Amino acid sequence: MNRHTRRQLLTLTALTGALALGAGTASATAAPAWTETGTSHVNSLTGSQGLASRADGSLVQRGLASVPLDLRIAGWTHVGDPDVAGGYTFDAYQGGDDATEKMFAATAPDGTRTTYEHALDQGELLNNSFASVSPDGQWLVSGEWGAMKRLQVFPTPALNASAPAPGANLPQAGQITLDTSVENIQGCDFTDATHLLCSSDDAAKEVLGVALDRPLDGKPVTGHVTTAFAIPQRSVCSGTFEAEGIDYDAARGTLRVAVVPPSPCLVTTAVIAYKRS
Description:
single chain
């Protein structure tokens, strides 16, 4: 979520009722591989950044108010789109504009949270938009911001034996090099070992597919980018929408994408559900 949108949300925290979303303009979709099945709405303060499905089908949701106080005091002011794997919840954190590190937090099933910091490599942006764990649990994919031709890959903390202990620098593994530039990726999730779906807050507000040339193994991998479908933009408020996190619940075959409507409706985030066509 960009800084302007965050400021708007913070000024609207006094609002107690969610504004009802109504029929409005909808983005046209390309011939979809996914069929929309319904829309739910969540408080943007706790659900605008992203979501992830647990094994029991319940959802982890993240928003500005989801940052724990101790992490906020430590300078980690933004949390991205999370993921759940091996019973752990993985969160992507970033600090201020002068940050030289980014951080991933792994929360164990018993609620114990452990943090893993990554010192920025040369040319790496401070943005830490999401965390997505490969189906085998071994690799954590993340992304930066703006126009990019790569996704970052790290050994998954707590699940990959090659990941360093807390307190040591979490290194990058082989990156995913994309054959097409993508813009403002807010979240990605694996649908299988060689395919991801990613939500893009570009001008079109769309879900992109990324097909890997092989499963992640810690070495460089190539990803082929395609457009899956446009994200619907429906609201009684007019203006610019913001595409946010994405989740694929493999056990139930449900895809969910979050989108924040324009102000003042941005106090409520729409979560749109899909099934494979």
